[in-house]
Amino acid sequence: MSAIIYLEGGGDSKELHARCREGFRRLLEGCGLQGRMPRLVACGGRDAAFGDFLFAHRGKVAAFVAMWIDSEDFPADVEATWGHLKARDSWAKPADAHDEQVLFMTTCMETWLVTDRAALREYFGNKLQESALPPLKDLERRKRHDIQDGLAYASRNCLNPYSKGKRSFEVLAKLTPAVLEQYLPSFVRDRRILREKL
Fold first, then answer.
1. How many C-beta neighbours within 10 Å does residue 147 have?
2. Contacts of 15 (CB under 8 A, 6+ apart)
3. What is the band of 166 on the pLDDT scale with cuts at 50, 70, 90?
4. CB distance 102 to 85 below 8 Å
5. CA 65 to chain centroid
6. What is the DSSP letter of 33?
7. Is the torsion defined by CA of 148, 177, 195, 16 positive or negative?
8. 2-50 pLDDT, tens digit each
9. 1 and 38 in contact (C-beta within 8 Å)?
């Protein structure tokens, strides 16, 4: 089965696009999807991912076309992704599209990163101030800026303090999906859908 997923992330540089794809590829391998990999397309911004998704969905370029984007805010119903996008972004659901075609990083990719404390310790080293990270309980309900600022502050004294881009994708590649599933209902949903569709 052919599948393609349009990813939010990677900015405008080819190098960052490659790093974004690699980070997500490693995460999917950790989900047990070796041999069933979709084509991953790093799109840069969220709007670009939506635009690329629309074009591919209308053209039916693959049996399964999806986008993996930040939810930005906590969705009222994790399964009703198009309802969330309509209410938050005024994005209309395309004809014949389904909620399973929208995979959310709730509320942002950094939520995933701060969930896996072992991966953070491995990447940032012993100067990581874990006490500055947000508590693991109800992480997806926290504002994305609080998550991002907490990660930046916790790593401020490290040799490689956190920043979006190269570092975010390097940490992404180290995450353990089973750890994310313990705390993040949206990630549980994403993994379930990918196992069904790929």
1. 23
2. 166
3. confident
4. yes
5. 16
6. -
7. positive
8. 999 999 998 888 999 999 999 999 999 999 999 999 999 999 999 999 9
9. no
- Both structure tokens of 21: 């794809």
State pTM to two decimals. Answer: 0.96
The H-or-E segment that residue 104 falls in is strand 102-105
Residue labelled with tokens 């180290």: 174
Closest residue by Cα to residue 136 from 155, 117, 118: 117
**Torsion sign (Cα): 116, 15, 102, 69:** positive
* pLDDT of res. 198: 94
What confidence tens digit (pLDDT) does each residue in 145-158 have? 999 999 999 999 99
User: What share of the chain has pLDDT > 70, as a percent?
Assistant: 99
Residue type, 141: R
List helix spans (H) across the chain. Answer: 14-30, 46-59, 81-89, 109-115, 117-124, 144-154, 166-172, 177-183, 185-197
